[in-house]
Design a protein that fits this description.
The chain is of the alpha/beta class and about 600 residues long. It contains 19 helices and 27 strands. It binds 6-O-phosphono-beta-D-glucopyranose.
Length: about 600
């Protein structure tokens, strides 16, 4: 996601900002920029692409002189990576510059209002409204201006601000997006995470939600939204730079597992207004839906598995046949498709070559293409007729976690929107599922509690030397088990296989012997008894079984060796919760085995060749 650095002191700001941005590269970005107050005028330098380009353009930050400045790496959410959309953004009178992390959810209404007042916008971003809003409300007193701006912004934001009218100060505001103030010796910093300032100081203050920081080279003041000055207690961060980039987690994968509540919130919340689902302008009109005969969901790896989970949900609630097809198979299958088929393309990176090729073939045969993608303006996002971004933020670990669960959440949104429009779901059931989606991030948060994670870790470590692990389930649990098996294979190099539980007796059960480990997913209440008999079949052959059950099904413990649970949730959206448990299971096995978790052997984060 985006990165922020700000500096005020006696040294030249440019080079310090550049170095700080380089420390934030790990967060993933597609453009960057700096702004420095240079003799009462704000100079801005921006560049699309890697920091190297900005470094060259700004000659290491030396083309601007001044000791107060802000810098930004942008992970595009609204608007393509471009100079106009890169930060810092200027107010129209060029007296303010801002950098922003987060999503301003009411930016369209603010933009309309400001445009009606004559403000001109240079880019398409949500962030730019902040710069214009500050100018609009500026009354000579920046603190009171920022207090007003805070009351007008909805969504999440961490904002760094500099003003040509106040060249001896740096400002910051935030809500639901981290921002820290670094306390140096005769100089101070703001940063989206410690990494950017850690080489200069280990002393920080955390800016609280809807608080304002006014920072000079020698002093920091903090105000609440009512303008009351507040005292802040500094703390010391004993991290080295590398650790800081992982936010204190041992691996990016673990960090991204724990980021899932926030990522799911970003996928779901901006698209739900009351009982209505808004898919960023994507509509399915009645005529189109009545002509629709099939939905093809295409992807690779975990994206393909997300599609299988989506199939189960969409077929159940939309009553439209859904095909899951591996992109690499689709390309050479001379697919039967056309205007009566909706092709949903799933890809975290939006650059997977097989998946892009499949999209182009579907489109060339007249099928409408809808991409579910994480990386804004990626090749697949640009090639599709419609794109629904997951907004999971950049995913650094090769084995996807939040990328996968947010894809599922996006498919649930699409399925519910179609089902309601088609009338294939009752309003009551629609509202139940919508409420389950809204509370899903919190349910995941609850599940990531200390106790549950400790239990998963205990079982994972107990079985870290298994030669082979089976994952079985029925219905949506079978779909979820596919990803569980892949996660384990990808990062621990243990052979694992997902099986439809009812299929076990038709073959694989011959492989079950003493102590063979099977993870049995038992979250579907109506399939409880079927799963019970499948589990007993495995046990009777000497196999060891860990059940992963909903709390309602926890009685399954009586016939298994161990039990992991997920919080009770709607059966139809349980795959997100089981995914998180199985991610942790794979992670702790790989950790115990000493595997290279974030960059597993032979794997790439995105395979951009066929
Ligand atoms: C693989 C990744 O290379 O590609 C998987 O290791 C991923 O994690 C698959 O699921 C598809 O990638 P994408 O970016 O198209 O979702």
């Amino acid at each position: 996601m985006c990165g922020i650095i700000g500096y005020i002191g006696s040294r030249q700001a440019g080079p310090i900002l550049l170095e700080g941005l380089k420390k934030l590269e790990y967060r993933g970005y597609d453009s960057s920029g700096i702004a420095v107050i240079d003799d009462g005028v704000i100079s801005v330098i921006k560049s699309v692409g890697m920091i190297k380009a900005l470094d060259e353009k700004s000659k290491g930050g030396s083309v601007v002189s001044g000791t107060v400045g802000i810098g930004h790496t942008r992970w595009a959410t609204h608007g393509a990576p471009s100079d106009e959309n890169s930060h810092p953004h200027l107010s129209s009178d060029k007296r303010f510059a801002i950098v922003h992390n987060g999503i301003i959810e009411n930016f369209e209404s603010l933009r309309t209002e400001l445009k009606s007042l004559g403000y001109k916008f240079t880019g398409e971003t949500d962030s730019e409204v902040i710069a214009k809003l500050i100018q609009h409300h500026y009354c000579g007193d920046i603190i009171s201006t920022l207090r007003t701006v805070i009351t007008r912004l909805e969504g999440s934001y961490a904002v760094g601000i500099i003003s040509a009218d106040k060249p001896d100060a740096l400002y910051a505001i935030r809500k639901d997006n981290p921002l820290v103030v670094g306390l140096g010796d005769g100089e101070n910093f703001i940063a989206s995470d410690y990494t950017a300032a850690l080489e200069h100081t280990k002393n920080f203050v955390l800016l609280g939600d809807k608080e304002i920081a006014e920072i000079t080279a020698t002093e920091t003041k903090f105000y609440d939204v009512d303008g009351k000055q507040i005292k802040k207690k500094p703390y010391t961060v004993e991290w080295n730079i590398e650790e800081a980039q992982k936010g204190g987690y041992a691996h990016f994968m673990l960090k991204e597992i724990f980021e899932q509540p926030r990522a799911l919130t970003r996928t779901v919340r901006p698209r739900i207004a009351g009982d209505e689902i808004k898919l960023d302008g994507i509509e399915f009109d009645g005529d189109y839906l009545s002509s629709l005969e099939r939905i093809d969901i295409i992807g690779c790896g975990s994206a393909y598995h997300a599609g299988i989970v989506g199939k189960s949900f969409i077929e159940k609630h939309c009553r439209i046949p859904v095909n899951n097809i591996l992109a690499s198979e689709y390309i050479y299958s001379d697919p039967i498709t056309g205007p009566k088929t909706l092709t949903v393309i799933i890809s975290q990176s939006g650059e997977t070559a097989d998946t892009l090729s499949a999209l182009k073939i579907a489109a060339s045969r007249g099928s409408r293409t809808l991409a579910v993608v994480n990386v804004v303006q990626s090749a697949i996002a640009r090639a599709a007729d419609d794109v629904l971004y997951t907004h999971a933020g950049p995913e650094i670990a090769v084995a996807t976690t939040k990328g996968y669960t947010t894809q599922i959440a996006a498919l649930y949104l699409i399925g519910l929107k179609i089902a309601l429009k088609k009338g294939s779901i009752t309003v009551k059931r629609y509202k139940e599922l919508l409420s389950g989606l809204v509370t899903l991030p919190q349910t995941v948060e609850d599940m990531l509690s200390e106790a549950e994670v400790k239990k998963v870790r205990k079982y994972a470590e107990k079985f870290h030397n298994q030669k082979c692990v089976f994952f079985i389930g029925r219905g949506t649990d079978y779909a979820a088990s596919l990803e569980g098996a892949l996660k384990l294979k990808e990062i621990s190099y243990i052979h694992a296989e997902a099986y439809a539980a009812g299929e076990l007796k038709h073959g694989t059960i011959s492989l079950i012997e003493d102590h063979t480990l099977t993870l049995a997913l038992v979250t579907q209440e109506k399939l409880y008894h079927k799963m019970e008999s499948n589990i007993k079949a495995v046990k009777s052959r000497g196999g060891t079984v860990i059940a992963l059950a909903s709390r309602a099904n926890s009685k399954i413990k009586s016939c298994t060796d161990m039990l992991l649970t997920i919080p009770d949730c709607d059966d139809d959206i349980s795959p997100v919760l089981t995914a998180v448990q199985l991610q942790l299971f794979a992670y702790y096995i790989a950790l115990k085995r000493g595997c290279e978790i974030d960059t597993p052997r032979n794997l790439a984060k995105s395979v951009t060749v066929e």
